[in-house]
Amino acid sequence: MRLTPADELARRVSALQKLLQKKNIDGALIMQSADLFYFAGTAQRAHLYVPALGKPLLLVKRSFARATQESALEDIMSLDNVKEMPRILNNYGFKDIKILGLELDVLPAAQYLRYQKLFAPAQIVDISGLIRTVRMVKSAYELDLLRAAASLNHTLFSQVQDFLQEGITELELAGQLEAVFRRAGHQGFVRMRGFNQEIFYGHIMSGTNLAIQSSIDSPTGGPGVNVSFPQGAGYKRIARDEPVLVDYVGVYDGYMADQSRIFCLGRLSDKLVQAYETAVEIQETIKKMAVPGASCADLYQRAVDMAAASGYGENFMGYPEPVPFIGHGVGIELNEWPVLAAGFKMPLEEGMVIALEPKFIFPEGAVGIENTFVVGKKGLETLTVFDEQIIYLGQK
Amino acid sequence: MRLTPADELARRVSALQKLLQKKNIDGALIMQSADLFYFAGTAQRAHLYVPALGKPLLLVKRSFARATQESALEDIMSLDNVKEMPRILNNYGFKDIKILGLELDVLPAAQYLRYQKLFAPAQIVDISGLIRTVRMVKSAYELDLLRAAASLNHTLFSQVQDFLQEGITELELAGQLEAVFRRAGHQGFVRMRGFNQEIFYGHIMSGTNLAIQSSIDSPTGGPGVNVSFPQGAGYKRIARDEPVLVDYVGVYDGYMADQSRIFCLGRLSDKLVQAYETAVEIQETIKKMAVPGASCADLYQRAVDMAAASGYGENFMGYPEPVPFIGHGVGIELNEWPVLAAGFKMPLEEGMVIALEPKFIFPEGAVGIENTFVVGKKGLETLTVFDEQIIYLGQK
């Protein structure tokens, strides 16, 4: 299995340490699987202590054997009882922790209250913003993994034609494509950050099911197969002359590529074709504008303006309730930073990776395009290379 | 789609209210998807306020349209801005909330701190134990759904013979079986409660891969396909004369059945066969002992004693590090209460649903059995009916 190299971990830890120093935080105690995978190279159950200065220490609960095989960090210890942690950190030279950072955006309150007591009188602060800031800019090593994820998607999108036929249910199509993903090495689980952020591969819907909204922050929702998990593919049979959205997330060695294409058995209406072309125009415009230094809020506004000028403004990014963004960072979670949204003032940097997804939703269906890009010197470079037309099948 | 009936929701809400009254808690504010699905009949993004006395109020963020279609509760309102909540609750007659219960086992700390401020000077207390207590005992309605989930598993286990062949990788087998699940109506996403509790359908491993431990609280771990998600099926090719574990979770209309069987192409060693038979004997003994009133800790101890007497005690429930339980509640999450563990003193009640999974792990493989049962008057009744022998394939 591919292991994160020591110098890559060192670069990541050092980037976090700079932010800890700037905020006068003595150290960060990292516990979430995705963050552990990122900073320690292992997703085994553990605590990673990253001091503002000095070498990080990984304290592993389970499995210690695997963590030592997987992590290139130098200092790894077994820790069975969390209560021992303050003493161990102290013995290790991390004395007098006054301000301790935790991932308060994901750490449950009950655990937060226990750590607060355990590390008293230290002040506990939220370092999730610092972590997301570090993770936002991808290294050359990470870009290789993102290209591997994009290649997984290429395999998937190339095989849609083998399964998509009139009368097949969305769910059946989803199941077949998920088997393609798995055979190609997909890890299955797609990580989203935060409370109640649940997703399963992505969304495959057709026609009117594309207009069904759900709780998820996505331009499409979908019925799902039941009320318990109300998103994604449903039991609707796919018909001719309606859009079929395949919006799936390839995950390879932990890194993900988010991509959508519109397929159709037959022909789409002129209206949907026009809206699709507008989506592609928006993509092309944003690709050029999204140079290092550009503001996410400006990109968002330009897309909204272009959608309005096309006459389909009220169908842009969700109908009747749009989501307030046109794209989002991706990496080892599906909802990373930056967010291409009005409220996101941070400028783009080279190496950020973004899924841009201009989509138009109508009562009879939805169209649009989504690719995962890296911010390069001259704008967005496409990672998820695949035919960008509406993909018509079954013409014979 | 199947909607939870009003009288079923009323029963659940009333059971929670009795516990709130007993603990002198003024009301519970429920936000987690699984708990919303259980108490409100919808998993849309919402807050459900359950007063200790009176009718519950569902405040929906997204999608309001779907929540009103899905939930049989009488009082449903749209709420866009969480800050409005104290005012709305007050206007609605829920005045002077002094003690407010939140799901502190899953609610992230950052959100907890915001609610604490929002509802000040109310005291915030953890009601996750009360919720898990209510959810622990299943109604006749829920048992029907659990039987439907078991039937999904029956479909899956019946088709293993169609895909399992020498040389197929675990991952390929997993992908094929997952497609069977999806075609049969599986929702895909398998819910586990708590921080870092990630699972994807379950575990399919063979031979030596069955001995690989992982972070998950499960007797088997598995390599997974990468370091990011280090559990479950890997790239190992399945060989003759080794055990193949299929431990998968069927989820139908939100309810799940957890089940394992051992398959084998060829023959297993006498040692593994003996260990398997011991696992079945443990299951049979626990089934009879697990009557209403029995102590979970006693059941656990009996299983451990039987394993020790068989001579394979140190291989029971994980090797080299066993997990400290032999079974766990299931319902709409995979790790519900009760837990058949030394520390779980609560007596069994009729209607509890438990996955019992006596397993033995050896360096060369693992064997054991798992079924989902309901606690009946005379002990455990099997929901996941299927051949309970080692299933030998490819004999011709």
Automatic annotation (TrEMBL), chains A, B:
<keyword id="KW-0645">Protease</keyword>
<dbReference type="Pfam" id="PF01321">
    <property type="entry name" value="Creatinase_N"/>
</dbReference>
<protein>
    <submittedName>
        <fullName>Xaa-Pro aminopeptidase</fullName>
    </submittedName>
</protein>
<keyword id="KW-0031">Aminopeptidase</keyword>
<keyword id="KW-0378">Hydrolase</keyword>
<dbReference type="InterPro" id="IPR000587">
    <property type="entry name" value="Creatinase_N"/>
</dbReference>
<dbReference type="InterPro" id="IPR050659">
    <property type="entry name" value="Peptidase_M24B"/>
</dbReference>
<feature type="domain" description="Creatinase N-terminal">
    <location>
        <begin position="12"/>
        <end position="137"/>
    </location>
</feature>
<feature type="domain" description="Peptidase M24">
    <location>
        <begin position="145"/>
        <end position="376"/>
    </location>
</feature>
<dbReference type="GO" id="GO:0004177">
    <property type="term" value="F:aminopeptidase activity"/>
</dbReference>
<dbReference type="InterPro" id="IPR029149">
    <property type="entry name" value="Creatin/AminoP/Spt16_N"/>
</dbReference>
<dbReference type="InterPro" id="IPR000994">
    <property type="entry name" value="Pept_M24"/>
</dbReference>
<dbReference type="InterPro" id="IPR036005">
    <property type="entry name" value="Creatinase/aminopeptidase-like"/>
</dbReference>
<dbReference type="Pfam" id="PF00557">
    <property type="entry name" value="Peptidase_M24"/>
</dbReference>
